[in-house]
Amino acid sequence: TGGFNSGGSKWTSTEPTSSVFSVATDPPINFSGTDYVAYAWSAVEGYSAFGSFIGSSSLPFVYCGFRPALIMVKDATSTGWFHVHDTARDPYNVSGARLFWGDSISEQENDSAYGFDILSNGFKLRNTHSESNSTGETYVFAAWAESPFKYARAR
Known about the structure:
0% helix; 6-stranded antiparallel β-sheet; mainly beta
């Protein structure tokens, strides 16, 4: 649930590459005998998009190049959980139903205070809540397409 850390305790000073990332050997991460999970994704045009945006009271639009079926957002600079909007759970705008990755509360029913509009080419935030759109904060996102046709093959 931690945010970005610019030096020392969580990450080494080695920049990640397309095939390697490094983790420091000191706490609070990388304890001996403890299991960890690392997610390393790469964007695929028309299928998935990853990036960041800056929170704003003008309600940011995030371009993905496709209509997302699932969107994960996390405040990159503070602790907190990953929250997820999807079109299976909430197919109409404003999408307010959420899943929580990494929290004991696993799901929240539709709450427009946390709403997103899921659009044909990305998503637009419809809230100014600190979990997804606090002015000036950096947020990371991951999105996967609803209908990824670009690389589909007939059988």
